[in-house]
Amino acid sequence: xxxxxxxxxxxxxxxxxxxDRMLVLDAVRQNGSxxxxxxxxxxxDRMLVLxxxxxxxxxLQxxxxxxxxDRLLVLELVMQNGNALQYIAQVLWIAIQxxxxxxLHLRVR
Length: 109
Known about the structure:
The chain is mainly α. The chain contains 7 helices and no strands. The chain is elongated, with a radius of gyration of 16 Å. The model has no long low-confidence stretch (mean pLDDT 87).
């Protein structure tokens, strides 16, 4: 398969192939950014997103909103690849900021 050599070749695949879990898995293992060409359903597949972001942290930007809001998934990815942090959902950024502010107020007192 061409995607095993160059995951980005997924961009030329038919919609049916972009929804083929094994083909997309091969593509994201070769290049995490290939996740952007996966079907919407597969961009919501936790294991595929993990594989893609392990290979390339920035692949998290192509995951579904639901997975970018998944605290456990984001924590695992950020621990493996700090680059993933910049692609977490806004809701998680707000939560992080609240925790940081609260911890600063507790230290000041």
